[in-house]
Amino acid sequence: MGSWSVLIVLLCYLALLFALAFWAERNTANRWIKNPYVYALSLAVYCSAWTYYGSIGVAANSGIDFLTIYLGPVIALPLWMFIMTRIIKIAKNNKIASIADFVSLRYGNDRQLGALITIICIFGIVPYISLQLKAVSETFQLLSGSTQTAENIFLDTTFYISLLLAVFIAFFGTLATDASRSRRGLITTVAFESVIKLVFFLVIGSYVCFALFDGPSDIYNKAALLEGFDTLVTFNGLEHGISWFYMIMLSFLAIFLLPRQFHVAVVENEDPKYIKKAIWFFSLYLLLFNIFVFYIAFAGKLSLGTGVNQDYYSLLLPLAEGNTGLALMVFIGGFSAVISMVVVSTLALSTMVSNNLLIPYGLLDQLFQTNPETNTRYIRNVRRVSIFVLVVTAYLFYYYFSSQLSLFSLGLIAFVIIAQLAPSFFLGLFWNRGTATASKIGMIAGFAVVVFTLILPRTTLGLGSNTDFITEGYFGIAALKPFGLFGMDMLSVEAHALFWSLLVNLSLYCLFSLLIVANYRERNFGELFVHVNSVIGNDEQGYVWRGEAYVEDVKKVLNRFLGNQKTEKEFHQFYKRNGIDPNNQKADARLINFSEKLLTGTLGSVSARMLIGNVAKEHPISLQEVLNILEDTKATRASNKILTQKSKELTQLAGQLQSANDELVHQDRLKDEFLDTVAHELKTPITSIKAAAEVLVDDEGDMPSEYKENFLKNIQEDADRLQTLIGNILDLEKLSNGRQELQLEHRSVRETIQKAVRGVHQLAEKKGIQIITAEISDAMAYYDEDRVGQVLTNLLSNALKFTEAEKGKVKLKAKSESQQVKVIVEDNGQGIAEEDFQYIFEKFYQSKYQNTRKPQGSGFGLAICKKIIESHKGNIWADPDFSGGARFVFTLPIHSN
Amino acid sequence: MKKRNLQKLAALGVLLVVFLNIPLILIFSEPVSVMGIPLFYFAIFTIWLLAIIVSYTILKNKHG
Known about the structure:
The complex is a heterodimer of chains A (897) and B (64). Chain A has 897 residues and is mainly α. Chain A contains 33 helices and 9 strands. Chain A has a 5-stranded mixed β-sheet. A two-stranded antiparallel ribbon of chain A has the order 1-2. In chain A, strands 3-5 form a two-stranded antiparallel sheet. In chain A, β6 and β7 form a beta hairpin. Chain A is elongated, with a radius of gyration of 46 Å. Chain B has 64 residues and is mostly helical. Chain B has a two-stranded antiparallel ribbon with strand order 1-2. In chain B, β1 and β2 (37-38) form a beta hairpin. At the A-B interface, α4, α9, α10, α11 and α13 of A face α1, β2 and α2 of B.
């Protein structure tokens, strides 16, 4: 395949990535972009060319060790729920944009510490990036079949590919000046590339296993005959096992500390909940990436021998078969692995370089323009230049040095260098006493140990210069052999370097943290980081600051970077959130802290603090005071919580009182209405009695005797009505107050019903209404017979009243259920209007549809029935589903309790 | 997340350290194969897969 056609495919692929990133930036809320799987896939930026090609070389060459690179993350992932959620919370609280920001903030926003971490990261990562470029260049040559190396940089395609990548990063990485904001476009391409590289790797793995060979067993059986096979699939002694342990530890640290991992896992995290998915999903991803490594490695060994670069077996195997299409696919997969790693690493490093190195050391003065656009443009350009410088440096490193070093060893050196951040990073999260000085001393010493035990000897070996010091020890002292300090030569080179450097680093960190007391600012952030899950870590209250500053001055600083509009908006929200009077002239600790955070994303925490420090006169506080204030904050928050609780309870109580009062007022009104109605009801018969009596008194003997009799009859009837009415009222009152004693006994419901029917029999006959009692079962219940008889009589007379003469039918039913007897009285009369169901059992309720002569009843009947049945612990209701008349149902208990 | 589930995850992490290191892993350090998979790789991949299944089971609960 000609190099031009490969190049065209490459450019098309890059164009696709540009388009994808562009689309993703436009559609950030799209569910294909905003989901936990994209987050989990973006973590797979961990799998660089080193995984894609390097693992195979290691598996073929030295055996099982490549697995350690993935086992560390596999162990770390379940623990993410503790550690990563905590880190993300702190980072989001403080608008952290890089690991340098994170660590330096923990140690009181220490400027030197941020710069030191940046430098360490550059030392570790730039060669690592160049290693990726090397992979692109070598695979490009293999595929295009050209063997000669470019005469100078400008004839080298890799150079132009690197520049294209730099353009990509510079464009999509600096869209927002706030570096803590997420870059959806970039992350989407990274996730896309993660899919591509895994799928292509699985395809080539299956091809090798099943197309070139006859399944895994075939490869194993043939490979087992190779010389030295046993040592490549097992441990070589106990020492190997110990190195294995340290290598797992190394990758465990790397998954947290590599700037690109910190970037995708923390800075680009949109929702801490995504971690739940990532934990198992990413682990599964890594597993899939490792399944075919063994087979590709040994298939390569069997088919191609060891005379070629074993890293590239996956590419060489299809090429040897003449399958260029498949080879091109493998190449694109590897290219994807390279791009995502280079893009994210460069982005993370450039943020660190600008925010922790360039701006706080020198460029800050340039930023005192008053125009926010000029400032943001300036910051953006600083980042863009850093991106280009980093990529070009990586390229130059590749061009001049990396031809001598293998993929695997350079990658491991990077890991060991980055591991020097571990003590400050991890202990800083859980131990509040660590100090900036101790952190710096530990890191520098650890890094020095790495230089002497790893970087220096490795590069001298690679460059082939004088290597006496490796065999003899530095200065000819045998105890200072770089690969076996103090005679400890049983570990692998990297494990040895990791062990000594971390030992020195950790010891010095702990020692100096205990020797030198932290200043108040370090301790303040120490408390904030360690207690991020409690009250003081969670809001603006935890930051201790005392001094004098004017809100206007602070605003002026913010205006320079955020613009007037954004500053006002942020302040407005801040005032609202904290309940502060916006007219306050003086700034308090919360406002200072808030303003620093606003600037942190753009300038880094160190510069943000310096800028705000310029306009705020801070008064020094002693450590003891800081601790006291924090203690107070905690106490106030706790008592605030109690107060809120109490006031909630009070509100609840007041609500209850209010509703009780409403109920009383309602009852009172009912009582009034009741009295009104009673008075009215009493007045009617009395008036008519009085009238009749007056007529009789005025009679002078000339009234015919049948008239007289009629008047007397009227008086008698009205007196009867009065008596019934008063009897009803007394009944109701007795029942309401529970003064009525019930004569409860076990009785036959049938008998009671028959007795009641007998009582109304005459009336029914007179009206020509049929009473049907066929469906009454022989049930026993526990009740007061007189009272229930009263209920039945009432219901029956209602039924008789509302049914038509001669056509009416009243049906009585009774059946026993598990705990109760159900009695039903139904008729085929005019029925109950829908709106009456709710009220018919209320005192004096008379339907407005009762358009016949008013006193059809006293209005008490059903109310009394209800009281009686309820005093039996039964229920009474009108069945709303019954059509063609009215149906009343009541229940009576079978047993005494 | 429930404290109990957090502790399950922590226990899983600790178990993985133990099972993926010497001396336990030395048991599988033999040049034989299981269905064409070298025993050592087979052991590592099995532990790995179990870790994925266990963490998935712990984490799948939305409210857990």
